[in-house]
Fold this protein.
Amino acid sequence: MSKLAIVYWSGTGNTEMMANLVAEGAKKSGADVTLYSPDEFSQTIIQDYDKIAFGCPSMGSEELEDTEFEPMFSAVESLLKDKTIGLFGSYDWGDGEWMRTWQETCKSDGAVLIDNGVISQDAPDEEASEACRQLGAKLAAA
Ligand SMILES: Cc1cc2nc3c(=O)[nH]c(=O)nc-3n(C[C@H](O)[C@H](O)[C@H](O)COP(=O)(O)O)c2cc1C
């Protein structure tokens, strides 16, 4: 069975809704899915996975959340080479710049990115919800 980790941070619940939709899509496509908060995920656990979905909203000024998510992500970045990665997250007033930067970071780490990161202005509407489910399904099938 295809094994997928979904690692996310969410302050007000929007990215959490996205994480649950990614999980729904992946499970429907037969994946064995485990959701992790940043403090649960580590350099040890990442070695159990070839496929990971990371979720983080745009925080700071078009940045990853810097107290919990970014330190975890920095710690595992050197282990992302050749892993299949999907990114998702919520934003509000920006234009998705944090996601473009994040994708470039993952590419330079040698990760294989599934599509463009899925972004949702605030809570996911039906279109963003479907994009999250699709991301899960594609990761399950990758
Ligand atoms: C401290 C802080 C900084 C933020 N910075 C940005 C930003 O730079 N660009 C943006 O589009 N939204 C920004 N936002 C809005 C959040 O990304 C948005 O509310 C998002 O839906 C939060 O997702 P969550 O519910 O998963 O925490 C910021 C929100 C907070 C609280």
Helices lie at 14-28, 69-76, 97-108, 126-141. The mean pLDDT is 97. Residues 10-15, 57-62, 90-94, 122 surround flavin mononucleotide (CB under 6 Å). Residues 3-141 form a domain with the Rossmann fold fold (CATH 3.40.50.360).
